TrEMBL record:
This is DNA/RNA-binding protein Alba-like domain-containing protein. Residues 23-84 form the DNA/RNA-binding protein Alba-like domain. It comes from the Eukaryota. SUPFAM superfamilies: AlbA-like (SSF82704). PANTHER family: DNA/RNA-BINDING PROTEIN ALBA 3, DNA_RNA-BINDING PROTEIN ALBA-LIKE DOMAIN-CONTAINING PROTEIN. InterPro entries: Alba-like_dom_sf (IPR036882), DNA/RNA-bd_Alba-like (IPR002775), UCP030333_Alba (IPR014560). It holds the Pfam family Alba.
Amino acid sequence: MEGITEGVNNLNITDSASANKKNRIQVSNTKKPLFFYVNLTKRYMQQHNEVELSALGMAIATVVTITEILKNNGLAVEKKIMTSTVDMREETGGRPVPKAKIEILLGKTEKFDELMAAATEELMDNEEQS
């Protein structure tokens, strides 16, 4: 768990197409585990009050799962959901293949800060008992 938290703390995501969006997380279902993205989303919401989760193709299910976990824990509300298709080229010179895309804008709930403080306190108590 500490390794994941440390990775989240040191993570710097940049993307030339969305460099102006500091609160966007592009989710992959092959690169990182689900709860890496859940924890990263919480961290982004602490910093920016809202976060945009974005995914293509098979990673769409991962974005929906992240959203549902945060909603069910009382941490996030959906502000906007956008779907579209983008043309992706499989190889150089190949013909474009349409891929499904989803973008979900999440905002903090009124109890977000209170719930995060309680979770941090519980984590500290558990560490002291170990």
